[in-house]
Amino acid sequence: MSRRTDRPQPAGECRLYGELARWWPLLSPPSHYVDEAAQIDARITRETGWSSRRGRSALELGCGGGSLAFHLKKRFALTLVDRSPGMLKVSRAVNPECEHRRGDMTTLRLGRQFDLVLIHDAVMYLTSESMLRAALATAAAHCRPGGLFMVLPDCVRETLRCGVEAGGEDAADGRGLRYLEWVTDPDPADCTYEAAFAFLLRDARGRTTVQMDRHVVGVFARRQWRQWIAQAGFARVTALRDPYGRDVFTGLRRPD
Fold first, then answer.
1. Which pLDDT score, from 0 to 100, does residue 256 have?
2. What element of type H or E holds 69?
3. What per-residue string of b and e applies to 5-44 under the rule 16 or more CB within 10 Å gives b?
4. 178: pLDDT strictly greater than 70
5. Among 49, 75, 153, 237, which lies 20 to 30 A Cα-Cα from 198?
């Protein structure tokens, strides 16, 4: 029998990355990222000509639960940054050999530079031009001259599609998660859309609860992405579609 527990999320915070963060390994585990990580690795090689051997440094802004980093750490010495303590705890368990730092991608300054700066889908939580530009400035500040910047938004304005998605995983201890995600765009004229989530969570004793969450995320036009990345200090800005239909943007850091 299920019991329903639905309460408002704290202002400015998604419950998925706070009180529900411990469930992340059953929502988006490293096993979901095998093919995507291979695609990213190949793109890095094409853009830079770097050897696939480990030895270069990389910074991931908005690392979440570290599922993508689990694969990239085979090639890079990774520093992983996220604003959520709960998600950093998950990532530390998955990637104990990586450096983890708590920080906001719009304001972070570590005082050092990396060969690669990467932002995955956490970039979607930047809901205004000023926030996105601030994150791009952070990327530029941490990317060495000639280094590579890569950002992978879930969609751009031209590719946003509303609809429903479902999924989830089971754990060996009997726990399980199933989710329903409903994407809507209440105002196509602005730069945000909404993703509403319903989570069915089963604990190790077989008890099931229902949790709700609502995310407001940002969406920008392809030309805006290219323009703002270039203005942040990157050259050879490209936008190529990956096998998942996403625009993957890259740029090489210009000398200061």
1. 81
2. helix 69-72
3. eeeebeeeebbbbeebbebbbbbbebeebeebbebbbebb
4. yes
5. 153
